[in-house]
Amino acid sequence: MRIIKNIVDFYIKSSIHVALAVTSFVKVWSLEFNSSLSIYFYGLVFFATISGYNFVKYAKAAGLHHRSLTNSLQAIQAFSFVSFCLFLYCLFHIDFKTIVGGVALSALTFFYAVPLFRKTSLRTLAGIKVVIVAIVWAGVTCVLPSLENGVPFDTDVWLTFTQRIVLVLALMIPFEIRDLKFDELALGTMPQQWGINKTKIFGIGLIVFTILLEGFKDVISAKHISALSITCVVLGFVILISKKKQSEYFAAFWVESIPIFYVAILLLFSHFLF
């Protein structure tokens, strides 16, 4: 059992799970716009997510304790380096327009972790953290695929981009509630400003708004709105049962699995039911 736990912990802490979640959102885009993406693009997103998340999470710790890193952190560092090399390999097979868009999103990620001035990074600015994360996720999973495949930025693309921002904001609520006992008051997170109950109500509102936006698209698909609705119901339930004292894997594994569940449901509907 200890070996299994170590494997699961590495899987989560090395950002493989979150990378699968982000890549799942890319596949959702591909299915929604009936536009196939190359294996290099999926690889780019997957390995860039691992590299970016691990940089944000561990760069400071590695810099302060580079001589006394634990074995697990050393393994994550090595894995991150390999992921970054694979990211660079995939980059050579990506359209230049996509690279330009990726640079802008990378800059947001960089300044999210690295102080701009007076030891202040974007993640430390009150109320900004979740918005930055949501914009980066939406950009990577909606804007970059559109650039890569030359899909026009019409109403449907921008509505999907908006939906993704809103959905990611809702996804982050269980994490925000979990981190209440760790976050400094200066961060101004949603639970800190509004309390847990009002934050949950806000999260349900975000979910309803996400579903309503689907009705404004020029192309409305039964399979897509069904998969989105089921995913939103699951996310709403997860938000309602979230609390400060969570199990170790509640947010980091189960909540983070919702985008993977989303694409699984959509694939099921695409191949068997519609």
From TrEMBL:
> Signal sequence span per UniProt?
none
Transmembrane helix is among the record's keywords:
yes
Q: Which UniProt keywords apply?
A: Membrane, Transmembrane, Transmembrane helix
- Superkingdom of this protein's organism: Bacteria
According to the record, the segments passing through the membrane are 12-31, 37-56, 76-94, 100-117, 124-146, 158-177, 198-216, 222-241, 253-273
What is this protein called in UniProt?
A: Prenyltransferase
Tell me the organism: Patiriisocius marinus
